[in-house]
Hints:
The protein is an alpha/beta fold. The protein has one domain: TIM Barrel (Alpha-Beta Barrel). 49% of the residues lie in helices and 13% in strands. It is built from 13 helices and eight strands. The chain has helices at 4-16, 19-27, 31-39, 48-60, 77-96, 116-132, 147-158, 175-182, 208-223, 235-243, 262-270, 285-295, 299-308, and strands at residues 64-69, 102-105, 136-139, 164-169, 189-192, 228-231, 252-257, 275-281. It has an eight-stranded parallel beta barrel with strand order 1-2-3-4-5-6-7-8, surrounded by seven helices. The termini are far apart.
Amino acid sequence: xxxxxxxxxQALKSIARNDHIKSYIQQSNELxxxxxxxxxxxxxxxxxxxxxxxxxxxxxxxxxxSLEYIGENTTNVEECRKDKDEFLNLIEEMGSLSMNQTxxxxxxxxxxxxxxxxAHIHLLEVAKRANLYGITLMISMxxxxxxxxxxxxxxxxxxxxxxxxxxxxxxxYRSINDIKxxxxxxxxxxxxxxxxxxxxxxxxxxSKELNNRYLELxxxxxxxxxxxxxxxxxxxxxxxxxxxxxxNHPHVEIEMLYGICPGLxxxxxxxxxxCKVYLTYGIEWYLYLCHRIAEYPENLYxxxxxxxxxxxxxxxxxx
Length: 319
């Protein structure tokens, strides 16, 4: 019999991809306000200014930040152009504030779901603008069916823009070979476990084997003296990396999602490790919220509490 937690996780990942449910929630006068309250545990707000304000507060506390305008799987060319322009505006504002940090994005948000060429053209425009302000652009990884296209676009873009980084999912068996090639490109590599529901023949389940693979990927990057962002909330994994002194390297940072394990990240920062908070904003928070609960079902308890009685404590104050 399947573990109940695994069943919940799989159900949430399926719900996250259900456009009918998403549309119903967005149009519901009862559900939408409740879920917006819950989403604010993990999302800074629905507009750019809310994201930047949270980022400014965290930077004052000596955190690095990565800010993303949420969205993916945009299939309309005009909408892709608008989303690309939103990233350009975000970069302009961050640049005007001398916020030389990171902007993250999904390629399917700016054109990959239309065609690879549209995604590449838009990414190149955003990357060049970011480079003007000393801002790093981090490409997120998506479903495995998109991996080849994402890596191809990344490699082409770094020929002109070395400020672009890429994300690798440790649970994909192929990642051990991908990373051997990616080490030869200039961009920072963000290592995540992987959140997408995939076929068992191409991914490792959450297990000791997956943790070992994660450590192996990070070790390869450190030995190559390659910039790396260790993106995990797994405390046992972090403790092992501390024991191995991975976090002591100047080109290594530990990255966590806003609203998740802030105390743990604060403790790591007190040890003078490079610590980054991944922030998001935008109206497409529904998919992001479902993934946060799917990755760590215990988040559901806090979500329900926030719907009933939103916390008075600002999330920033927890860092």
